[in-house]
Amino acid sequence: MRHFIPTFEPTVRHAPAAAWGDAATLVPWAIYEATGDLEVLRTQLPSMRAWVDREAALAGADRIWSGGFQYGDWLDPTAPPEHPADAKADPDVVATAYFARSARVLADAAARLGEDALARQYGRLADEVHAAFNRAFVTPTGRIHSDAQTVYALAICWDLLLTEQQRAFAGARLADLVRLAGFHIATGFVGTPLVIPALVATGHADVAGRLLLQTECPSWLYPVTMGATTIWERWDSMLPDGSINPGEMTSFNHYALGAVADWMHRGLTGLAPAAPGWRRVVIAPTPIDGVTSAATSHLSPYGRIAVAWEIRDGALELTADLPAASPARSACPAARRT
């Protein structure tokens, strides 16, 4: 498979696919958030629009992107080795969620650039997809179609639910699914960056901690028990008996599942930008049972920013090193005894 933007060959080999194609909107936005450089958005705005317009055409009037080829929650650990797209998360839920996310990011980008008409146009589209997502996939209580960890993580992190009651249910259900899986990971490329942030955001940091520190397969630390020093493409690229996964893709140096490191910097250690380009900083660590210290640093456009904390006698002691040009606000929780 080769996927690229713009797509000009109407074949499955080059079919537009959610998550992969959404790089057209999400990568420029991520660069803008990291650098504060509006020229990145200005340069990429035409291709961002082209991608969202393509999603809208594929979804049609009901705003639900369904059918056709999708990678979906690629390499869900329950998928057969030879069928990596056979995830628990319904690919239509994943695709429509990404459509909503890309439309919202495009509207926000247009607003930053002063393109008010475009911001209103794509804001309305994002609202329509948001409503369609709930109409098609979410019950009034907050249960999401396919009832998988990934669909709840997407809905929570991207604000796709309608009410606080639905959000609370989704967080509780996600935590239950993690417990039912024995605190083993059950997400692929799509859900993995979001599952721990979703748990923490809905008040389940204890569950997130047990998921992060699990060492049995599948888990983030299972490869470490097998001697890994890099992130694998599959949760079980190497099987517990030392043999290689029979699937055709078994890279031992792959990024996607390592996306949890973003939360380890922003959430666990607690260093995150509060404004594009790190003009302002928020320091809000999330201590978890089993972790007694954490440290990170970032070389921002204003200078090096560093945060470190340690739990001593049940109290969290935090130090921060900040450039004068990057004011910070702190939200340090009371530490739990570990």
Can you tell me about this structure?
The protein is mostly helical and 338 residues long. Among the domains are: 1-137, Glycosyltransferase, CATH 1.50.10.10; 272-338, Maltose phosphorylase, domain 3 (Sandwich). 41% of the residues lie in helices and 10% in strands. The protein is built from 10 helices and 6 strands. The protein has a 3-stranded mixed β-sheet. A 3-stranded antiparallel β-sheet has the order 3-4-5, covered by helices on one side. Strand 4 (303-312) and strand 5 form a beta hairpin. Helix 7 packs antiparallel against helix 8 (205-213) and helix 7 packs parallel to helix 10. It starts with 22 loop residues before the first helix and ends in an 8-residue tail after the last strand. The model is unreliable at 334-338 (pLDDT under 50).
The overall strand count is 6
The assigned structural class equals: mainly alpha
CATH fold group of the domain at 1-137: Glycosyltransferase
The string of secondary-structure elements, in order, is: HHHHHHHHHHEEEEEE
Annotation field: number of helices: 10
Q: First CA to last CA: what distance?
A: 47 Å
Helix percent band: 40-55%
Overview features:
three-stranded antiparallel beta sheet; three-stranded mixed beta sheet; Glycosyltransferase; single chain; disordered C terminus; mainly alpha; 10 helices
